[in-house]
Amino acid sequence: MLNTAAFLRPTSDELSQPFWEATANRKLMLQRCQVCGAFQFPPHERCRRCLGFVTWVESAGRGALYSWTVVYRATHEVFKEWLPYNLALVRMSEGPLMCSRIVADNELDLREGLELRVDFWPIGDVSIPVFKPLGAASGAAENPEEAITERRDA
Ligand SMILES: [Zn+2]
After folding, report:
1. Which fold has domain 11-153?
2. Most buried of the four, 10, 36, 118, 125, by CB within 10 Å?
3. pLDDT of 112 over the 50 cut
């Protein structure tokens, strides 16, 4: 049987390591240019706007729903247990777009501009940033592996 956590575990490299170390501590980091001040995500060696040096800074963890889709047909067996699920683009308050998922009580209530805040999905020894509507109850995001078990039991 396929190990969901192992399959979903992001591959960390020299460039993304600070990002994944921060998410393990429930912090969302973005790169910021030391020359022009632009924020960027995903990480790059240099600023994509002016080629200036960049540094990691903590994000406010706030954003707005830019676009999304609901997936009804899994592209891999690992995702079958999640169906249907959303994939979303979140416009961070700092500017960059981040591909993520929206964890909401009713995913049908998603709408463009919905205000969101980051939360984290623990998967094995890493945490993946996901987003919740700003008014949603706080607390750790639902563990995707537990969610799978719950849906199997339902
Ligand atoms: Zn720059």
Report:
1. OB fold (Dihydrolipoamide Acetyltransferase, E2P) (2.40.50)
2. 118
3. yes
